[in-house]
Amino acid sequence: MTTAPPIERGLDAEGLATLLTAELAGQRGDYRRATLGYLAMAERYSGAQLAERATLAARFSNDILLLEQSVNTWHQLAPAAEAPLRLLAGLALQRGDWTKALEWRLVLAEQGQHAELALFAELALETSTDPLPLRERLGSYLERATPGTHPHYHDAVLAMAILEAATGQRRQAELRLDQLARDHSELPALWLTRSQLALEADNPRQAREAAGRGLEISPGDPRFLLLLAQAELMLGNVAAAERHTSALLDEHVGNQELRLSLANLYLEDGYYEAARRLLLPLVSSDEPPPGAFYLMGIIAEEEDEVDNALLYYRQVSPGGDFLRARLRAARMLIEDDRLLDARAFLRIERLRHETRFSELVALEVELLGEAGLPAEADALLNRELARTPNDEALLYLRGMRAWERGDIEAMERDLGRIIESNPDNAAALNALGYTLADLNVEDRLAEARELIERAHALEPGNPAIMDSLGWVYYRLGDPERALPWLERAYASMLDQEIAANLAEVLWVLEKQDQARRVVEQALDHFDEHPRIDALLERIPELAP
Questions:
Q1: For the range 443-446, what are the long-range contacts, defined as Cβ-Cβ under 8 Å and sequence gap of 24 or more?
Q2: Is the full-model pTM beyond 0.85?
Q3: Spatial distance between the Cα atoms of 362 and 370, rounded to a whole number of angstroms
């Protein structure tokens, strides 16, 4: 082999071995190793298809940073490819970076792809994202773009109008939509946006007119029928609203979820009779959806028919509304000065639904706390745990209540019982390990690390556990090892406690600018940020 000529085409031995190893690793479920192998070969051979394969493996690895690295490599090797751009936009949204997500969507738009900018703007507003930076960035894009060169230019104009209206520039938004109506009056999305903005501005007549125009262009479109119903309700025209909702139901015969949604629409505006008319066919059907009983309970409660409401709430079977129904029922009785009845109701429900026993006990504990009866809540927990001493959910709840009171010994006792009976309870392992690390109990940091590492082995993709792992390494005096874990945790879950931990480690590593950016983002994103506040008290220089 030493005298063999060099390989000038195809794979050499190292390349072949790396790819085979990556493929076998993927088949065995070792997605991290598979990703790293494909990435190495993608960079070596400048192969976009290998980077795509790396991305596929990374999506199963539960490592958000590795996924970002793979997608970025794919984009660099295939800058015109649509899929990596959409993935990059999605990853930015996942970590709450709406401005970066918009940047990636605008790259798609510049390439002539449909970037769904109007939908993006609506989603941003639904999540209470600050619309001003998005408006400014989209404005600079529109200054450069022209309708003739960008096939989906109108989508950007619609998005801009939505953001302008949300930032107080309603007149400017109206002018944009007027111009678009002259040039693209055939677009259903135009009239959809006009109607939605008019509803938000409490202008139901204009909303009705715009929705009517949209329905002419797109007959039977359920979005316009729904907008028309909303506009009529705002105008107090219940009969007209019911005609539109009846048309919707005629188009979607048997759609129980739609009927529930429409009933909820009437309920929110206080039109109980109209809501009841929609719900009665559901509750009397052979297989009534649990949500129908839940909404009927709300109607009865709003009409001060407490016993009828209780009857409906009890009929909500286990599912999405099960606990909400019991919570509303119990709160309703407490507000009616019937605390004993509320507790009796929950006790009976625990007997009726044994599989939801722990959740119903936790619900009663919460209500007793709200009523200013913490001693009663503790007594309930102790009593139920005396009957079911190995109930992990209740032990965890009692342990966390002890932690809130500062009784670490009691917390450790309950979490220790969980771990003793179930060594694979990742939540208990992580909670105990993180508490020991956070308290910086020097002679127990090694124990804390072992607990957290066990939790991570059980749930490697859990961002809370990644945060704990980074924090315990930091407490052990290894901030370099801590940093990538905290970065992964923060990339996976925008959380003020993780942000505080990450900022502190960055500061210790003399990455001051990055640390301040993390603090600034957390202060902007979270209404309450006690961990960030505590960090700034200790390190005032971190303030942005």
A1: 445/472, 445/475, 445/476, 446/476
A2: no
A3: 12
| Measured distance CA(87)–CA(75) in Å, rounded | 10
Q: Write out the E strands in 487-529.
A: none
Q: In this structure, how many other beta carbons lie within 10 angstroms of the beta carbon of residue 140?
A: 11
Question: How far is residue 466 CA from its own chain's centroid?
Answer: 19
The closest alpha carbon to 227, from 250, 253, 205, 257, belongs to: 205
How many beta carbons lie within 10 A of that of residue 406, not counting itself? 8
Q: Beta-carbon neighbour count of residue 58 at 10 Å? A: 25
Residues 314, 296 contacting (CB under 8 angstroms): no
Distances (CA, A) of 358 to 112, 230, 395, 396: 54, 40, 10, 11
Q: Which of 443, 418, 447, 417 is nearest to 433 (CA)?
A: 447
- From CA 105, how far away is CA 150, in angstroms rounded? 13
State the amino acid at position 353 in one-letter form.
Answer: H
Q: Which residue has the tokens 């063999």?
A: 4
CA distance 267 to 276: 9
Per-residue model confidence as pLDDT tens for the chain (544 residues) = 456 455 455 667 787 888 888 888 888 888 889 999 989 988 888 889 999 999 999 888 877 888 889 999 999 999 999 999 999 999 988 877 889 999 999 999 988 899 999 999 989 988 888 889 999 999 999 888 877 777 888 899 999 999 998 898 988 988 988 888 888 889 888 898 889 889 988 999 999 999 999 999 998 888 899 999 999 999 999 999 999 999 989 888 888 999 999 999 999 999 999 999 999 999 998 889 989 999 999 999 999 999 999 999 999 998 889 999 999 999 999 999 999 999 999 999 999 999 999 999 999 999 999 999 999 999 999 999 999 999 999 999 999 999 999 999 999 999 999 999 999 999 999 999 999 999 988 789 999 999 999 999 999 889 999 999 999 999 999 999 999 999 989 888 888 999 999 999 999 999 999 999 999 988 888 888 899 999 999 999 988 7
Q: Where on the phi/psi map is residue 477: left (φ > 0), alpha (ψ -120 to 50), or beta? A: left
Q: Check: CB of residue 156 under 8 Å from CB of residue 150.
A: yes
CA atoms within 13 A on the CB side of 542: 29
Task: Identify which of 474, 506, 463 has the alpha carbon closest to the alpha carbon of residue 63.
Answer: 463
